[in-house]
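Chain A, query sequence.
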Amino acid sequence: MVAMADLKVEFDLLDSAEKTLTSLTSEFQNIKTSTGDYDGALGSGDIAGAMGSFSGNWDYHRGKLVGSMQALGQMIGESKKQFHQTDNKLAADLKTKTEKK
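Chain A, predicted structure.
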């Protein structure tokens, strides 16, 4: 954990969030819609059509959700990188000031 004045960065939490998001994104990308497999069991063309419509909407919205999850994952990764760089720079500056005394 890094504490900068009033800012505290929990790197373990960021790491955990990034790993969880990566796993969930992968799962969502691999979900397959299989409503067509059940058309005969639905007993009605109207019901099968409604399920097909739902399936199409789900594919579309799942794709948008996956895109948002990927963007969030990139933001988490970039945040970690920037916090680490800032922490390293502050540590180097502090070391330089301490050595000058």
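Helices lie at 11-29, 39-42, 45-100. The chain is about 80% helix and 5% strand.
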